Amino acid sequence: xxxxxxxxxxxxxxxxxxxxxxxxxxxxxxxxxxxxxxxxxxxxxxxxxxxxxxxxxxxxxxxxxxxxxxxxxxxxxxxxxxxxxxxxxxxxxxxxxxxxxxxxxxxxxxxxxxxxxxxxxxxxxxxxxxxxxxxxxxxxxxxxxxxxxxxxxxxxxxxxxxxxxxxxxxxxxxxxxxxxxxxxxxxxxxxxxxxxxxx
Length: 199
Known about the structure:
The protein is an alpha+beta fold. The protein is built from four helices and seven strands, in the order E-H-E-E-E-H-H-H-E-E-E. The strands form two sheets. A four-stranded mixed beta sheet has the order 1-2-3-4, with helices on one face. 20% of the residues are buried.
């Protein structure tokens, strides 16, 4: 597995680079042959001693993009924390049935086909003339717990959804993660338009 390591706020030693590569070697058993890992190590990321060092790994394997973040008193401890999370993400990605994607694709085609023919329900009946205006037929309300984007992606995959709305723990804003056709993930992060700026 090809690995790129970058260090911020400190000088990366050969010994630490070797430890990182040995730890990432665990992932090679379940990663695609052409997998690539980008590792970013940040020293003094927090004033708290137990989370002073942060490690971020972005892994691209067979078109899937997985990201995990760990923090600890040392770089090795930070990396240990995220390797387990990344391993679980990779196992879920491999075990997730392809039919989940196919089901979402079929549902999308079905909705588009009904829209094209002017029908709105599975029975194929045309809507009444008075029902041409869009209306909300169901409202879902749920408590939003702040989470990071990688946790939101995991939750989306656990639910088998094509997208997931969450409260971003980093920005305190509402965001949406979604599955892209190429196998990766995207995120929508709304930004408030300023007065006088057109859209």
